Amino acid sequence: MEYKKVLAAILAELEKHNIPYAIVGAVAMGFWGVRRDTVDIDLLVKATDREKVIAFMKGIGYDHLVASNFADQFGHLMKEMGFVDFLYTKREQGIIEDGKTFKSIKDIDVRVAMPEDIIAMKLDAIKNNPKREIQDWADIQAIVEVLGDKLDWTKIRNYCKLLDIEEAYEKIFGFR
């Protein structure tokens, strides 16, 4: 997959359709200095923009492979265009607005979820799909090992409370 090419194409479409977003998952981790191999790009957008996302992804040649209430997966016949997952949020304010903007691909502004929010999404994934536990805990550990004291530990504790998994905080804090 040619990540820069794919991101440039998708970010241009998001901007064209005025869709706020944040990059999440392994690609977002990379912006924060945490490297992990991945086979796709994950983006978070508002649930109200779902139909626009589906339409423009099909318009740029992606097949709609998987649909659920909270996510859509797209794949392209051209290997270099790879797989793209869109996750949807119903919150009016949150991860998208709190994200940090990086200058990246050809001076395009790239909105990336904050590392604490990435941790929260990984915790939510673990809670809802235990099959993801090994990889998501490894990702959380890697984020903490790289960013440590730069993280907002109060925010992480609050996410653990919100997700009703307060015991996870001690495990996460122990990765420091």
Q: Care to describe what's here?
A:
With 176 residues, this protein is of the alpha+beta class. The protein folds into two domains: 1-113, Beta Polymerase, domain 2 (2-Layer Sandwich), CATH 3.30.460.40; 114-176. The protein contains eight helices and seven strands; from the N terminus they run H-E-H-E-H-E-E-E-H-E-E-H-H-H-H. The protein has helices at 3-16, 25-31, 50-59, 95-98, 115-128, 133-147, 153-162, 167-173, and strands at 21-24, 40-46, 62-67, 71-76, 83-89, 100-103, 109-112. A five-stranded mixed beta sheet has the order 1-2-5-4-3. It has a two-stranded antiparallel sheet with strand order 6-7. A hairpin with a 5-residue loop joins strand 6 and strand 7 (109-112). Helix 5 (115-128) packs parallel to helix 7 (153-162) and helix 7 (153-162) runs antiparallel to helix 8. The longest helix is centred in the C-terminal third of the chain and has 15 residues, at 133-147. The radius of gyration is 16 Å and the shape is globular. The termini are far apart.
Which CATH class of the largest domain applies here? Answer: Alpha Beta
Number of domains: 2
Q: Helical element count? A: 8
CATH A-level architecture of the largest domain: 2-Layer Sandwich
Main β sheet profile:
5 strands, mixed
Could you estimate the helical fraction of the residues in percent?
A: 40-55%
Which segments are poorly predicted (pLDDT under 50) over 5 or more consecutive residues? none
- Silhouette: globular
Strand residues, percent: 15-25%
Oligomer: single chain
Straight-line distance between termini: 33 Å
The pLDDT mean sits at 93
CATH topology of the largest domain: Beta Polymerase, domain 2
The run of helices and strands is: HEHEHEEEHEEHHHH
> Radius of gyration, rounded?
16 Å
* Counted beta strands: 7
As laid out across the biggest beta sheet, the strand order is 1-2-5-4-3
Structural class label: alpha+beta
